[in-house]
Amino acid sequence: MKDTAEPKALVWFKNDLRLHDNEVLCHAIASGLPVIYLFCVDERLFETLPLGFRKADANRVIFLKQTVLDLQKRLENIGGHLHIELGLPEEIVDAYVNKYSISKIYAEKEYAWEELQMMAEVKKRIAEKAALITFWGKTLYHIDDIPFTISKIPLTSKAYRIPTGKETEVREPYNEPIQANAASAIKSTAFPSFEKLGFSEEEIAAVEPFIAGGETAALNRLHNYTFETKLLTGYRWSRNKSLGMDYSSKFSPYLALGSLSVRTIYQKVKQYEQLVKKNQSTWWLIFELVWRDYFTFKGMRMGNAIFKTEGFRNKRIDFENNTALFKRWCDGKTGLPFVDAHMRQLNKSGYMSNRGRVNCSSFLVHDYRIDWTWGAAYFESRLIDYDVSANWMNWHMQAYEIWYTNPIHQSLKYKAKDYIQQWIPELAKINDAHIYIPWHEKSAHLGIQDYPKPVEIFSKWGRSIQKILTEIGG
Ligand SMILES: Cc1cc2nc3c(=O)[nH]c(=O)nc-3n(C[C@H](O)[C@H](O)[C@H](O)COP(=O)(O)OP(=O)(O)OC[C@H]3O[C@@H](n4cnc5c(N)ncnc54)[C@H](O)[C@@H]3O)c2cc1C
Fold first, then answer.
1. 111 is known to lie in a ligand binding site
2. Which among 216, 245, 431 has a CA at the least distance from the CA of 345?
3. 113 Cα–ligand 1 center, Å
4. Which of 27, 107, 118, 197 is in the most buried spot, having the most CB atoms within 10 Å?
5. Annotation-wise, does 184 bind a ligand?
6. Of residues 209, 194, 197, 216, the one with CA closest to residue 76
7. pLDDT band at 5 (very low <50, low <70, confident <90, very high)
8. Using an 8 Å Cβ cutoff, are 414 and 355 in contact?
9. Where does the chain bind FAD (predicted)?
10. Taking the domain 138-174+214-306, which CATH number applies?
């Protein structure tokens, strides 16, 4: 039934699931209209792709639920609510406009292909009924402040980074609102059950997101990584590791759903530089956030070519696309311990280090010769920090812009023994460098039976294998 009462504002949360530094929220509250708060669980997220897995799998749905429920609680604390609806956002938003006499819809601007189609559809449906007011919120540097238009974003990161850093200031974060100005008599609704989203109890029980979702956990992690533990001071030297929480910030899952604002991170790092330490690490963390910006803007320039096998450079590798090998890679059963440990961590926890992502993607594309878009789609399905541009642009880069990463050399270089022991129980008892080549004839005395052998030992690994044998004394 249509609510014929006074006009209202709708805050449509998407990947901006936070109260702090949220321009959308601040403008909606400042409009003076009573506000309705909405999050749509897009049913398309859980569809099964032709490759045989869901677009977003169990870890992602658990992490999303934690994030949305935390937002709901925080909105309730300031006198608000959060309606959670399952379906197609374009239909839900249109139905809300009709049902609640919405005159203004406030939402974050989108940048990626599918999401832009969805926003266009919303606009078409609401037509003259309501105004759709959107704000840019994703990047460190505001899209309107960088010294390039999207169609002229440079093709190299340096050509983007240097002028942008010189000519652009990071905007001040918005204050967190203290009251929601919510429409009266509107109550929060529940997150749909996992069953309704198509997940069995076993699927949900089999995984556990690497970190807890939500703005509260995000702000805690920001404080923890900076002022509480001062881990940030060592980031430059630890960032290429893979084991545990401490070697890198773990901000990415929070940035992906917007439960942490990138400008708030920047502000915190600047305070840290003043009060604790300014060094290569603090510079490097900001540098990584600028990479994230660059991939967002460059991805916008390239449009939907970032999802295509030939990519935006129209290149082509002669992919063999062996589906049995793809399954081995997905399952963490390639026989390459450094690759398998990372894939198993991804499957269980929805997270993988940057070092792991580089090695697993390179291995899939250049050793197994499988279409990089299959790997990117698999990461999309599993990563709790899935971000359209960070994922697809990094995969594109591994396929076409970086030649090769040798997973045997890297396992030795990054001393991955403890990490492999943690994620591959079959190898947990191997205490020396045999763990990097458990299938080698010189490792035969270890009697490893239940861990697979690689389908091929490539000659390009020869020198690294020799180095390992020298280290073992073989
Ligand atoms: C094949 C591949 C796929 C990837 N997919 C994603 C993805 O879907 N989502 C995602 O957030 N990152 C992705 N990355 C980038 C990177 O691996 C992760 O951002 C990082 O591992 C997250 O952990 P962290 O927050 O502890 O990173 P930190 O090392 O602490 O870095 C801080 C922040 O900088 C940003 N950042 C760091 N490295 C990169 C990078 N190479 N590209 C873009 N941003 C970066 C992230 O926002 C990260 O949270 C991918 C990298 C590769 C090689």
1. no
2. 245
3. 20
4. 107
5. no
6. 216
7. confident
8. yes
9. 235, 248-252, 385-387
10. 1.25.40.80
Nearest atom (ligand 1) to Cα of 295: 43
Every domain of the chain and the residues it spans: 1-137, 138-174+214-306, 308-474
| Topology of the domain comprising 308-474 | DNA Cyclobutane Dipyrimidine Photolyase, subunit A; domain 3 (1.10.579)
What are the structure tokens assigned to 154, written together?
A: 């440079």
Percentage of the chain exceeding pLDDT 90:
95
CA of 346 to the centre of ligand 1 (A): 14
Cα–Cα distance for residue pair 164/156, rounded to 1 Å: 13
Whether ipTM > 0.90 holds is: yes
pLDDT of residue 317: 87
Residue closest via CA to ligand 1's atom 3 equals 391
For residue 361, the ligand 1 atom closest to its alpha carbon is 1
pLDDT (tens digit per residue) in 322-374:
999 999 999 999 999 999 999 999 999 999 999 999 999 999 999 999 999 99
User: Is residue 1 predicted with pLDDT exceeding 80?
Assistant: no
User: Is the minimum distance from the CB of 295 to ligand 1 under 6 angstroms?
Assistant: yes
